[in-house]
Amino acid sequence: MTCWAIIPAKPAADAKSRLAGALDAVARQRLATAMLDHVLATVAQADGIDRIAVVAPDDLVLPAPVLRIADPGGGLNAALAVAFAEAAAAGAARVVIVHGDLPRLEPRDVTLLAALPGNAMAIAPDRHDTGTNALSLPLPAARDFPFAFGPGSFAAHERESVRLRLDCEVIHTPGLARDIDEPADLRDARGLDWE
Q1: What is the distance between the alpha carbons of residues 31 and 190, in angstroms, rounded to a whole number?
Q2: pLDDT mean for each 10 residues of the chain (195 residues)
Q3: For residue 195, is it within any domain?
Q4: Are residues 100 and 7 in contact, defined by beta-carbon separation less than 8 angstroms?
Q5: In terms of residue numbers, what domain contains 164?
Q6: Domain of residue 173, CATH code
């Protein structure tokens, strides 16, 4: 079974705009870069991941052998749909999508997402249980999965599991739940080299 990990990444200059009241543009850029570097390194250490891809603009520097999938524009869900289709066309049996702003992510978090049985999907909600910070989708069973990242995405993704008749696990770990969206979240980014 081949498992791909896909990580969406905005241009660093555009990342974390909701933190503008707490951090200037340079600090936001450094934070976004440090978090993406952390997520990439963590995913690379996880068991069960065969290929890592980043949906990213052309100017983002990625370590080898990470595959770049060009961001087609149109927002996060459109970009992930393109990357998901590329993984499916390449023969992936499972795709794990992990956001790049998870500074407490650990390899075991990603391993949990990769190690699901064939007809199961998983959702890792954010700390508020409203958003989605990671998904694990089986192929070909989830080939028509419509991504709904944004407000209320956890419930929307859970509804899709029912529609597609997939067993759905909800995975709660600190590493998957604690993304950085608001100034109060910045305490979870301590320890990364960005300040």
Answers
A1: 10
A2: 92 82 91 94 97 88 90 92 96 97 97 95 96 98 95 96 96 96 92 83
A3: no
A4: yes
A5: 3-189
A6: 3.90.550.10
Single-letter amino acid code for the residue at 3? C
Q: Determine contact, residues 44/92, Cβ cutoff 8 Å.
A: no
Give a yes or no: residue 139 inside a domain.
yes
SS (H, E, C) the chain: CCEEEEEECCCHHHCCHHHCCCCCHHHHHHHHHHHHHHHHHHHHHCCCCCEEEEEECCCCCCCCCCEEEECCCCCHHHHHHHHHHHHHHCCCCEEEEECCCCCCCCHHHHHHHHCCCCCEEEEEECCCCCCEEEEEEECCCCCCCCCCCCCCHHHHHHHHHHHCCCEEEECCCHHHHCCCCCHHHHHHHCCCCCC
CB-CB neighbours of 48 under 10 Å? 16
Domain-located, residue 194: no
